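Q: Start with the shorter request: fold the first protein.
A: Done. Sequence, then structure:
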Amino acid sequence: MNLTKLQLREMIREELLKEKVLQFSKKGERFIKRDIQDLKSHIKNLEKGVQRNDGNIVRDAIDDITETTTWVNKNLKKYFARIVGNY
């Protein structure tokens, strides 16, 4: 099988991209697991605030949930942009 330089370069590029995506998915999985734990904690705080009828706890929990979900969205966009931008 004779490959041109361009075909060989493209094959190498595809393999590098696969490796980069694999690295991202491992790192991304850790971040996602951590963020899910954070969200669970914030939801528990929200439930406590509702049970105690404490508006301050409820407001803080909602703020934490909003901040965490915003952070998750920004990080996912950043990581996907890095992968696509590098190749």
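Q: Next, the second protein, separately.
A: Sequence, then structure:
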Amino acid sequence: MQNTVTLHITALGGLGDGIAEYEGKRIYVPYTTEGDVVTARIGEKTADGYRGHLIEVNIPSPRRQAAPCPYFAECGGCDLQHLSNEDYSAFKLSRAKQALAEAGYDPALLTLLHRIPVASRRRAEFKIDGPNLGFFKGGTNEVVPIDQCLILAPAIDALIQPLAALVKNMNGIKTISLTKADNTLDMFVKCSKPLDEISKNTFVTFAKIHMIGRLTENVGDKTIVRYLSEMPVVTNGTTPVELPVGAFLQASHESQELLTNWVVKQVGKKKRVLDIFSGIGTYSLPLAEKGLNVTAYEGSREMVDTLNRAAKQHGIRSLKAEVVDLVKNPVDIETLSAANCIVINPPRPGAAAQTRTIAASSLKEVVMVSCNPASFARDAKMLHKAGFRITNVEALDQFTYSTHLEIMAKFVRN
């Protein structure tokens, strides 16, 4: 097979790549869409074809739109800026519907896709390579330098150029993460070696100038808060929660509000609720505020302590959080069977062990928020085999222009 070829893109694949046929082989080309004629380099073999690397779009498809970002197809942060609005929404819905079908459910159950606008992402991890600050090029560890990002909240976007200037002549900086809390910005600097005194002072001065409430340095397993003028706080329900260093947050305030409202509505007035993979109480606190008895399970001691402390400080007596390694020791059958409903929001790998335990219990209601259609399909299939039906399912596009997708589903059995 030739290395550089002309390809006619005939379809869009399940992971957002354009699909072409060449000499009887299937070629997957990122950043293309149905109807494009492109020049591409044929690369590595995949499970069912070859990966193509786009060189040039020779004849753009009528379905194609101009990407709004000048770094698109170089920076690996976005995959789908070239799709028309209609095709973009259709692709996202198709991913969720495919997951439902793979789990044994009727894809027609899903009709609603929520889309979060750009300029709302409240957390970002910038990669550093010498003088370059930006994001990795797709499929590589090559840093593509940027000076703006239309996805990010304005408070974070405004710091890209100042940060790039800050680290230009520094050594040993691997990544810089910024989180927009409700009240301030939180900065986390990951280093390959400890910062020298000049660099420490430079970072602290930067934090003061740019109103960054907390500055943290990390080297290996050692994490040190270098500057603190204001503890970052987020609000779960109506309860303010101090944000632990590196704690998980939903990608935007808007997506958290949407997910929380949906979860609270699906749980309803159940008396005994378990929140599995609870984090710092995104769902636990709003549910407990309504008077429900909630037990939260989370693997991080720091997040559990934070959640319990927030509940105590604000007089929420119906919530308790426990540290549990949910991968190795899922919540047991007896505990699940005693609950009226559980909320489960697993990480990207899903919750295979926990779902098997749920299926074996007598639990009747599961409210699931999944950030990965593939692991959702696997876990939901186990629930389907255990007799659960879906009474409500919606999709959330909170990682705009990426292939990532949230699926929210309520499972019920008699």
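Q: Describe the second briefly.
A: The first helix runs from residue 85 to 103. The longest strand covers residues 49-59.
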